[in-house]
Specification:
9 strands, two-stranded antiparallel sheet, 8 helices, seven-stranded mixed β-sheet, globular, about 210 residues
């Protein structure tokens, strides 16, 4: 199975870690602070999940998922440029400014965090997805009455044969690991610039459930 490093141990990171570990993947949950608490109860932690600092998690994993706050992700991930070289980085965060606990203005108007990350990390394959939904839907899309749509965006230049191929390569058994149905519920949007329409929750360039 794939070794997956998840940066961020909050609700999003812990939820993804639990689901991917349950599917048989080895997950390294990277905490910014070694004393940081995980978003999951201690007794519920799968033995396939290990913990480390974020640099170690990035260096030792095959694939890296960014589940840290999007407004500070660019600086954080750029600092991990060496460790991310040659790897796939899946970004599930939203780069918005805090507005009294709610998503505020975009950090990169006219652009997107995915584009900024790809420009800053030319040796890394960046895939943007799952940021248009709540964390519980990321790993259990079946809880919605109407099947939702996951719309990955990814760079194509020097990356692979195209964004769809990059998405399929990202996690070899992602669909079965996280209960996502087969296409058309998982569609590729195109290059990283399409992430501009997926920057805030509730916005996606493909069909989505009205409950998403």
């Amino acid at each position: 199975m794939t070794s997956i490093g998840i940066l961020g141990a909050g609700r999003v990171g812990a939820s993804l870690a639990g689901k991917l570990a349950a599917a048989g993947h080895h997950v390294i949950l990277g905490r910014q602070n070694p004393k940081e608490q995980t978003g999951a109860p201690t007794e519920d932690i799968n033995p396939r999940i290990s913990f480390s600092d974020q640099r170690t998690a990035t260096r030792t994993a095959d694939i890296v998922i960014n589940a840290t706050p999007g407004d500070s992700a660019l600086d954080r991930l750029t600092d991990l440029r060496t460790e991310l070289a040659g790897k796939i980085l899946v970004d599930v965060s939203n780069a918005t400014r805090d507005a009294d606990g709610l998503p505020g203005d975009l950090c990169y108007p006219g652009s997107s965090l995915a584009e900024q990350l790809q420009a800053a990390l030319p040796d890394t394959r960046v895939v943007k997805t799952l940021n248009t939904m709540l964390f519980m839907v990321m790993t259990a899309p079946e809880i919605l009455a109407t099947p939702p749509t996951a719309a990955p965006s990814g760079a194509t230049s020097g990356c692979c044969s195209g964004p769809t191929a990059c998405w399929r390569w990202t996690v070899p058994s992602w669909a079965s690991s996280t209960n996502w149905p087969t296409r058309p519920a998982r569609q590729s949007c195109g290059c990283a610039s399409t992430a501009r329409t997926c920057t805030t929750p509730g916005r996606t360039p493909t069909r989505r459930s009205p409950n998403a």
